[in-house]
## 1
Amino acid sequence: MNVAEFLKPDTWFTAHAGPRYVQLRHRLEEAINMGILPPNSSLPPEREIAEITDLSRVTVRKAIHELVKTGMVEQRQGSGSFVRAPVARVEQSLSHLTSFTEDMKSRGLETTSRWLERGVFLPSPEEMMMLGLPSGSSVARIYRLREAGDQPMALERASLPLDILPNPVEVTVSLYDVLERSGNRPVRAAQKISAVNLTPEDAALLGVAEGAAGLSIQRISYLESGRVVEVTKSVYRGDAYDFVAELRLSD
Ligand code: 16G
C-alpha cells in the first residue's frame, strides 16, 4: 500500500475521536511503524497530506511537529520532513580500556570528530582538583562531537594536564594514539554512568529529540604510576549504546 492510500481519512478519521492533529499523528506513526514510510524516506509535502486527508495545513503541520518532537521524524532544511532511521546500537565493554576510535574500528565503523573546543585553558576548580594540578597551571581541553559511520554518537569533553598533552591541536583523530606515542596512554580507569535526559543543546548536536534518553559518563584515567592522565565527561546517545559488563563470582 502506498502512503497516499494509507492516509485516506475514511479508514481512520473519526470526527469526535479527539483532536484532528492527534489522529493524523497516530496514523503517520502507524505508517512509519508498518514500513509504509520506511527509514530515511520523505513524508509527502504538507500540502499533499492536507489534500489527501481533507485536513487543514495547520493541522498537518502540527501533527508533523509532534513527530519531530518525539524524534521519529526530522526536518532537513529546504528538503522537507524525513523518517529518522534508527541508529545501529553499539555494545561497549565495561572491562576493556579502549578508545572510541578502537571501539568503532572493531565494528568496521569509521570515526569522525567535530571539534567544539580544543586548546589550552585556565583550569576550573574541579579540573584542578581531579587532575591534581598545582595553582597557576594550565589545562589541555578537547571537546568533540564523536561520529561513527556518519551518525553522531557522543559528546566528549576531555581535560588533561598540560605536561601530558602539551599540544592539544596535535589530536586530530585519536587522543589515545597521541598519548600512546608519548608513553602516556592510560592503563586503568574508573567510570561512573548515569541516566540523563538530553538538554536542548546536547540533543541538537546529537541529532535526537530534546529530552531524549542519554548516558552521562565520567571517566578518570590513570597511568601505571597512579597519576591521573585524563578526566572526561561524556554524553552518549541512549539509543545508540549498550554498555556490557562480564561478571564473575568472586573467589
Ligand atoms: C573513550 C573514552 C574517553 C577517551 C576516548 C579516547 C569512554 C566513556 N570514554 O571514548 O575517555 O577520551 O575514548 O578516544 O569510554 P580516541 O582515542 O578515539 O580519541
## 2
Amino acid sequence: MSTNDITVGFVGLGHMGGPMAANLVKAGYVVKGFDLVPAALEQARRDGITVVDSAALAATDADVVVTMLPSGKHVLDLYEGGLLTAARQGTLFVDSSTIDVADARAAHELAEQAGHRSVDAPVSGGVMGAAAGTLAFMVGGADEDFEAARPLLEVMGRKVVHCGGPGVGQAAKICNNMILGVSMIAISEAFVLGEKLGLSNQALFDVASNASGQCWALTTNCPVPGPVPASPANNDYQPGFAAALMDKDLGLAANALRANGVDAELGMRAAELYRRFHETGHGGEDFSAIIRDIRDRSNGETR
Ligand code: NAD
C-alpha cells in the first residue's frame, strides 16, 4: 500500500502535532486534521493538511488516528466523546501525547472496547525534532499494532523503540525524564558548590565530563555558559526544553511513583523543585535555568 492510499486523522496540531502532521503530508499520506485553535488550522492548511470541522470528522474513514494533546484528560475526553465511535472498526489509534501511564492504559482499554487497535507513542526531541522529523518514539502496545504504526512513526521520527505492552511507552518517557530532571539538579548543585569552593566552571566541566559525573545534562545541556557553546545557558536559557514541560513530566513520574509505592526520594524532590520553579514564573525558561534558582538560594536570595 503506498502512503497516498493511507488516510491519517490528526487531532492536536499545536507546537508538536502541527509539524508532525506536516511531515506525514510530505511523505505522501493524506492527512485530515483538527485543532481548537484557528491559527493552528491556518498553518495546517498551508502545510497541505485537509482541515476538518471536528475531531470526529478527522477520524471518519481514517486508517490511522494520531492524537497529540496536552494531557490524559484531553485524550480520554476525546476518546469517550465520539472520536472512537466515529472511526471504522479496526482503526489504529496512536496517542503521542505525554500522559499518565494509568490514563494511557485506560485509553488502550477504551480503544479495544470500541473494536480498535492502539499504541501509546510519546516522543522526545521537542519542537525542533518534530519539525525535522527526528523525534524519538517510545511505543507501548501489542507487537502487531506496533508494526502497523512503525512506518508512520519512522516518517515523524528517527528512533522508534517498542518498549512493551500498553502504557509502557509512557513509562519509558517518564522514567527517562525523571533521570534527566534529577541529573540536571545534581549537575547544577555541583557547579554552584564548585563556584563557592573557587573551582572554575570550565575546570569542573573538563573533569566531570571525562569522569564518572558524565551525563547528557552536563555534556549537551550544560547549565552554565561556556563549556558547551550550543547549550541554552549561552542564550539566556531560552528553551530548549522548557521548565514547564519538565514540571509536567516529573508530575506524571511522581503520580506513577506514588501509585506504585516506589520509594524514590530524589524523583519526588525533583518534582517538587521543578514545580516551585515553574510556579515562581520560570516555566518558559530552559529547565537548566534551575541552576540560577539554586545559586540564588545559596546566596540567601529567593527568586
Ligand atoms: P500544544 O499546547 O502546542 O498543542 C496541543 C494542541 O492540542 C493545541 O493546539 C490545542 O488546541 C489542541 N487541543 C486541545 N484539546 C483539543 C481538542 N479537544 N480537539 C482538538 N485539539 C485540541 O502542546 P505541544 O507542545 O504540541 O505538546 C503536545 C504534547 O506533546 C504534550 O502532551 C506534551 O507534553 C508533549 N511533548 C511536548 C514537547 C515539546 O517540546 N513541546 C516535547 C515532548 C512531548
## 3
Amino acid sequence: MKKSLAARSIGAIAIVTALTASLAGCSASGSDGGSTDGLTLGFSQVGAESGWRTANTASVQESAKTAGIDLKFSDAQQKQENQIKAIRSFIQQNVDVIAFSPVVESGWDTVLKEAKAAGIPVVLTDRAVDSADETLYESFIGSDFVEEGEKAGDWVVDEFADADSVTIAELQGTTGSAPAVDRQEGFADVIGEDSKFEIVASQSGDFTRSGGKQVTEAILKSNPDIDLIFAHNDDMALGAIEALEAAGKKPGTDVKIVSIDAVKDGMTALSEGQINFIVECSPLLGDQLMETVEKVAAGEEVEKRIVTEETTFDQEQATAALPDRKY
Ligand code: AHR
C-alpha cells in the first residue's frame, strides 16, 4: 500500500530527528538513570524478598550508573516465568548483555539457547543454574553456598561440643534455589559426622521474614523443645525470633540461632544476642558484574566462575563491624 505524502513527510522528519539525536551523542538518560553512551545490560532480578536482595539491587543499579551502562532492570517477584519473559524481552530489544540471578536452578536451557542463538552473552550473578551445557553462559559471579552451609555447621559442632544430643530446625530458602540446595548440603555434610545432631524439622520460609515466622510457629507446635534453628538467611532468622518470642522463648538463649547473610538487621540481632552466629554472604556484586559485562561485550575472556570472598561473625565481631556495615 502506498503511503500518503503527509505520512512520508512525518516518517522523514522522524528519521532526521533520530539521526540528529544519534549524531549528537545520545545524551538522553537510560531506563535506570544511567547514560546511554555505552552498553545496554538487561538484568532480571529475583525479587525483593530480603534485606540482602534490596542491597544487591542497589549495588547493581549504582555500579551500572557509575560504569555508564544503560541498565534495563526487571523484578521477577520470585517467579521463574517472569524471569523467562524478561530474558525474552531483553533478546527482542537486542541488548548487548543479559545478566540474571536465577530464582531456581533448573529449567533454563531453552531460553538460554535463545539468547545464544541471538548472539547475546549471558552472565549469571548470585545464583547458579544446573544446566549441563556451560557454553550457555559466560560467567557465574557469586558466593560458594555449600561453603556457607559448612561454615554454619562448623560453628554448630563447636558450640554444642559438650552436648549429648541436639535437635535442629532448618528454615530453608526458596525450594529449588541454588542457595537453599547448597546451604542444606554443606550444613548436613558437617553435622552428619556426629549422630547426636538431629534435624527434626526442615521447611521452606522462601527467604522472607514472614515465611521464617510462619514456619517457626508451625515447627514449634510439633517440636517445642528444639535446641537450634539453622536459617538459610537472616530475614528468616528475624522472623523466627518473632515466633520464638511469641511462644515465650528467649531467642539466642533458649533456642540458639545461626543464619547466613550478615545484613544490618541480622547483625543488630547478633550484636544483641538474639542470633548467635552469622555466615556472611555479600550482596555487593555490582562492580564485579559491570566489569565482567564490559569484558564479555568486548569479546574478552572472563573467568567462568568468580567466587565472592566472605567471612563469619560472632556477637563481638558483629558489634565491632556494625558502625561501618554498608548493607
Ligand atoms: O541468593 C542469595 C540469597 O537470596 C540470600 O542469602 C537471601 O537473603 C536472598 O534472598
